[in-house]
Amino acid sequence: MIEEIKEPVTVVAVFSRSTVAPRLFTWRQRNYPVSRVTASWSDYEGEARRLFFSVITDGANLYELCFHTRSLRWDLLRIYHD
Questions:
Q1: Where residue 9 falls among pLDDT bands split at 50, 70, 90?
Q2: What is the reported pTM?
């Protein structure tokens, strides 16, 4: 089942050279440590680049995060769960 969220989240991430790796995000006052990034991709919204990450936190759910490089904002876009 896919649950559309589209809400801002706070993310702790590692920025190294040209890569970004989310390590933890906070959504609705709960922390979700990222155990694994399963996929990443990017696109453009006008001239602004967006970075997308599919992450696993608890082994059961997959979360899709988006980093907006122009505004430096993170969003939780959707959750994939059984």
A1: very high
A2: 0.94
